[in-house]
Design goal:
- This protein is mainly β and 180 residues long.
- It has one domain: Jelly Rolls (Sandwich).
- Helix content is 11%, strand content 43%.
- It is built from 3 helices and 10 strands, in the order E-H-E-E-E-H-E-E-E-E-H-E-E.
- The strands form 2 sheets. Strands 1-9-3-4-7-6-5 form a 7-stranded mixed β-sheet. Strands 8-2-10 form a 3-stranded antiparallel β-sheet.
- Strand 5 and strand 6 form a beta hairpin.
- The longest helix has 10 residues.
- The protein starts with 15 loop residues before the first strand and ends with a strand.
Length: 180
């Protein structure tokens, strides 16, 4: 349950799940499986979030000990449509259409990746489905945004709540990760 005022649209809370795929010890030890070493990283999700308020639901994906961030948004409401409106690069991941926006302080390239938040927005917002996470990272690598040697650290799914219309609940009804 959440009851958040609208404070200029900023994210007030981010309840999320997490799946550790690597972690601090792998990166610190110079080990861990890089993006290029995976054959698949897939996930399914389902949720029953309210239509009121301002929020976005999606994946928050981290590489290299939480240095590099990729988000894959599946659904959003209210003024949280600011970021999807900025995305103009059409991408298809696992047969699903998205638009992409490199939100960066400086150039959008592997050398500056730690100063970027790479954002994919589903063309048609949905409350359930599947996402080919590895395809997103591979697309970033193929298009010069990330490095094939980046080491996946953590996969999260959650809701960034900016504001609510009174007290609202944001129930996750299913989530799976398949990593190989």
């Amino acid at each position: 349950m959440s009851n958040q005022p609208n404070v200029g649209g900023q994210v007030e809370t981010y309840p999320s799940t997490e799946y550790d795929i690597g972690g601090r010890s792998d990166v610190a030890a110079g080990s861990g499986t890089p993006i290029s070493g995976f054959s698949s990283i897939d996930s399914t999700f389902s949720e029953a979030f309210p239509s009121e308020g301002g929020w976005d639901a999606g994946y928050d994906l981290w590489t290299d000990d939480w240095k590099n961030e990729t988000m894959i948004w599946n659904q959003w409401a209210g003024s949280n449509d600011f970021w999807p409106k900025k995305a103009t690069i059409a991408v298809t991941l696992g047969g699903v259409g998205y638009t992409f926006y490199p939100n960066c302080n400086g150039p959008a390239d592997p050398a500056n990746e730690a100063h970027c938040e790479y954002m994919f927005f589903r063309d048609t917002p949905v409350t359930s489905g599947s996402v080919n996470i590895l395809a997103a990272w591979q697309w970033e690598v193929a298009n010069g945004y990330a490095s094939a040697s980046d080491i996946p650290t953590q996969l999260e799914y959650g809701v960034e709540v900016s504001y609510t219309s009174g007290t609202e609940t944001f129930p996750m009804t299913g989530l799976t990760f398949d990593v190989s």
